[in-house]
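Hi there,

I know you've been waiting on this one. I reran it after we fixed the sequence typo, so this is the corrected version. Both the input and the resulting structure follow.
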Amino acid sequence: MNGWDTFTWIMALVLAGSALVIFAYFLRDARGVLNRGRDEEPDD
């Protein structure tokens, strides 16, 4: 395995890790948005 292969694998792992972090933030925010919609009473 040469240096470019190692670099490619390291960057792929970094990209996958950052995608997981972004997805975790998305799930946290989505839960807050959904709960905020339930707390408000509808205007009739």
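Quick highlight: The chain has one domain: 1-36.

Best,
R. S.
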